Amino acid sequence: PVTKTSMPHSLSFKPSPTVPLAKDLAEVYAGIPDVEKRYEAITTAFETAYGGKPDFYARAPGRVNLIGEHIDYEGYGVLPMAIRQDTVVAIRRAPAGTPAACKLTIGNVEADKYPTQEFGLDPKQQVDVAKHSWANYFVSAYKGAFELLEAAKPDSVPEPVGLEVVVHGQVPTGSGLSSSAAIVCSSMLAVLAALGEDPAGVDKAAVAEAACKAERYVGVTSGGMDQAISMMGQQGVAMHVEFNPVGEGGGGGCQGRVCVSWHGAISMMGQQGVAMHVEFNPVRGVCVVLPAGATFVIANSLAVSNKAETAPKRYNLRVVECRLAAVLLAMGLGMACEEAIKKIRTLRDVEPLIEEKHGARDGATAAAAVAEVLQESYTTAEVEEALGGFKLADLFSGEPGSLRALSVAEADKYAFPLRKRAVHVYTEADRVLQLRAVCEDASLDGSTRLERVGALMNDSHASCADLYGCSCAELDELVGIARTAGALGARLTGAGWGGCMVSLVKDEQVDAFLDEMRDKYYKARIDSGSLPEAELGEVLFATKPSNGAAFITLA
Ligand code: NG1
Ligand code: MG
């Protein structure tokens, strides 16, 4: 659904296309204290482990999504911003002739929590999904770096070399702030540099896309938001990240152009990588200036959502549900079963059919079409019957993450609530565009603008909780406390089922807001000893849009 709005250019602009090579830490970490000390500690850990200095450092941040939840994998744009917490990867080529030259050695500054792991050099090695390890994310990035190079320059892919690595991450894990994208993106940049790529020429969007695909090796069929914002984020602005965007004149959807959905694009990349980059430019970021006078505050519910482990039951299951909803909706709108099975990958793919039948493709129209066509929920047998006997296992063959989700659903005798899921996606996609339009509408006065942004955030939370089923008791409680404490809007952020929420708070109220959140949610946990008081600042904090990924050279 695209509600076309007039967007004055003074309030939005494109980020620079290549990864910056910063010679000065202050350029990247403007205003953040103790960065030098942190890099010294990383360097010291590196020298202790490997007896020499790293050749390169690469960093990539986590993110908070302001609006647009669980729609990136359906091809819809989202509106996140990068946060200051990041992951740094220090790397060097292992000295030739040493045993280290035949392997990847992945260490961490926090070695007790994240012990050193070793892997072979084969870029085609499998990531062991059953054995969940922090270093799997590095291996995914390593594989992805080679895939990127194979697609971009098939005739001159470098030979694998032994790598020595030290990682330091600050993004809290399992909290919806995308620690995973931070480690995958920074690792991929570090590997590219170590393989001889000129850091100054690395294309941000290409790495974002390759990193999204690479992260799937850890077992989550994720969309591309996190890697895109981690790569392209820019200080001071949020970003409207779009996938397969249509030309400026377009009204959304495919508009007769060759248009491949995000998942379709990814599954095609192996054969058609280069053509995809050149012709479709699947990821685009547009910087969006957020309204003045208010601050985003992040609060962690402390319910941990370890997605790599719970993906089949939750996240991947939603991806499956959206696909089923899309295929059945397309059929309900007149597409033949066989064609729908073959062509329809995402709910966005159905937009042209919605428009053909209902004359529009905005969120409300799409939601009405869904209500008309889809029943509330479907058992596996009912979906297969609707598909003329076509088996779900065949529909998702070649998608291991989805197949695992299906088998869990089957074991649980789960019925897919397809109507709610589809309504969430279409209406949430619209809210992203509305929020951007509110930010860019110069005719609004400041407080109206803030109120509208807050209201959209509240609607988004309700939709996530009621229609998409990705909230949890702790998140709902936190959101309630935040609204009572004066937030203009509050919502879960990221995948949900735990992790963080984000609130919009007037600048002059931030201190009082933080106090009230502390008293009403965290104090009992501090008193009971489950939350060390010293860690409060890591679970409850105000945040500003920060810079995306960068290479760093230390003076
Ligand atoms: P987080 O919150 O980082 O697990 C996940 C997906 C996103 C997006 C959001 C929901 C990954 C790596 N990221 O983010 O692509 O779908 O959920 O909007 O799985
Ligand atoms: Mg993640």
Could you explain the architecture of this structure?
This protein is 44% helix and 15% strand. The protein has 555 residues and is α+β, with helices and mostly antiparallel strands. The strands form 3 sheets. Strands 2-14-3-4-7-5-6 form a 7-stranded mixed sheet, sandwiched between helices. Strand 5 and strand 6 form a beta hairpin. The radius of gyration is 23 Å and the shape is globular. 2-acetamido-2-deoxy-1-O-phosphono-alpha-D-galactopyranose binds next to helix 4 and helix 6.
Q: Which secondary structure elements does this structure contain, and how are they paired or packed?
A:
Blueprint: E1 12-13, E2 21-22, H1 25-28, H2 35-50, E3 56-67, E4 79-93, E5 104-108, E6 117-119, H3 136-152, E7 163-169, H4 179-194, H5 204-215, H6 225-232, E8 238-243, H7 262-280, E9 283-288, E10 294-300, H8 307-310, H9 315-332, H10 337-343, H11 351-358, H12 363-373, H13 380-386, H14 392-395, H15 400-411, H16 418-440, H17 446-467, H18 473-484, E11 489-492, E12 500-506, H19 510-527, H20 536-539, E13 540-543, E14 550-552
Helix pairs in contact: 3-4, 3-5, 3-7, 4-5, 4-6, 5-6, 9-15, 9-16, 12-16, 16-17
This protein binds 2-acetamido-2-deoxy-1-O-phosphono-alpha-D-galactopyranose (NG1) and magnesium ion.
The site of 2-acetamido-2-deoxy-1-O-phosphono-alpha-D-galactopyranose has 18 residues, from helix 4 and helix 6.
What is the rounded distance between the termini?
A: 49 Å
The small molecules bound here are: 2-acetamido-2-deoxy-1-O-phosphono-alpha-D-galactopyranose, magnesium ion
* Helix fraction bin: 40-55%
- Going by helix content, strand content and strand pairing, the class is alpha+beta
Q: Provide the β-strand percentage band.
A: 5-15%
